[in-house]
Design goal:
This protein has 99 residues and is an all-alpha fold. The chain has one domain. The protein is 66% helix and 0% strand. The chain is built from two helices and no strands.
Length: 99
């Protein structure tokens, strides 16, 4: 009788220890993710600052913007839509020749 109580007590104690360990692990993962997020933000900021044109606050040149818009409009105007070609079949399902 006493042996079963000891076994039940050990099992309950084991579940308690496992629950505590899992909670601690969850807290460490949360802290690690917060730290990782901060480090990634710093890394991205340093990379963006090193790229010319992105890090500085120089305004966009209106002449360059006009040329970019002109090139975009020219590219859209030259698009040609080709209608689909329908090939007819005869009563046997074979392709028929046009004469």
């Amino acid at each position: 009788m006493m042996e079963t109580l000891y076994i039940i007590g050990a099992i309950i104690l084991g579940f308690g220890v496992m629950a505590k360990l899992l909670l601690d692990l969850g807290n460490q993962i949360d802290e690690g993710l917060i730290e990782l997020d901060e480090k990634l933000a710093l890394a991205i900021r340093s990379v963006v600052e090193k790229i010319p044109g992105l890090g500085d606050s120089e305004p966009i040149n209106p002449i360059q913007m006009a040329f970019a818009q002109l090139i975009g409009n020219m590219a859209q105007q030259k698009q040609v839509i080709i209608p689909p070609k329908i090939i007819e079949r005869d009563e046997n399902g074979l392709f028929s020749k046009k004469e």
